[in-house]
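Run log, item B.
One chain of 112 residues. Sequence copied directly from the ordering sheet:
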Amino acid sequence: TAATAATAPVPAVTGQVVPITLTARNSTFSATTLTAPAGATVVMTFVNNDTNMPHNFALYTNATALTKIFAGDLVTGPGTVTYTFTAPPAPGTYFFRCDVHPELMTGTFVVT
């Protein structure tokens, strides 16, 4: 007789890669809401179209920006960089901003 083994379900996000493109222009982001599955690897193409102005993408637990999840290096425009980071493991709503212009350039990062 053949033995049947029970296997634990594998999370759907295992090894998942999510490409995102975010552009900075006129000290604003091209999107104010970004979405990724929990625990996914995010490969972000960050494009800064503001000449001689530094920008970055930084992800925080909330709008107080006290707990940083990820912060990309500053990019002085025009320029493009690829940021790679892991989306938070828990579904929810997180906060992103440009650390140089934290009042002007903000958004919501939704983890599903």
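Observations after the first pass:
- The two ends are 43 Å apart (CA to CA).
- The chain has a mean pLDDT of 91.
Flagged for discussion on Thursday.
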